[in-house]
Amino acid sequence: MTMMRHLVIGVLAIGLAACGGAEDSADAGDQAAASEFAGVIDARQQSLKDLGGAFKAISDQLRSGDPNIAEIQAAAATASGIANEDFPSWFPAGSGAESGLDTDALASIWSESDDFVAAHEQLKSAAAELNDAAQSGDAADIEAKFRAMGGACKNCHDQFRRDDD
Q: For the whole prediction, is pTM greater than 0.85?
């Protein structure tokens, strides 16, 4: 091959690589953004699953006919502790569906952020009241506060979480 032919082939190879590289670079940017939020989404989903698990433990005990107050107290303390964490920080901008990752978070979390913060405050209050009732051991009060906390959960899910259907 002549020197000129080597040069032309080399320039063409570099040009083709650069075209593909731009796409690769965009893909890498998308992947970097997704991986930036993967840990945040996983952590928030785990915390919310833990909250749901504590809530279910209380529900199971209340439905048992002979509730174990100690188990309810432990679960209520767990639920209250999780509810008192900074939920809004679990949802940084960009960590919704636009991240390309699996999340049930609706865009309303960010577009209606004041309502989201208010829903979190409602949950914190309901969880604290449930925990107080549980620690007192008053079964009737536990049931009433449990229903109130369920309402707070539903309120948030209705506005800010995609249906599981």
A: no
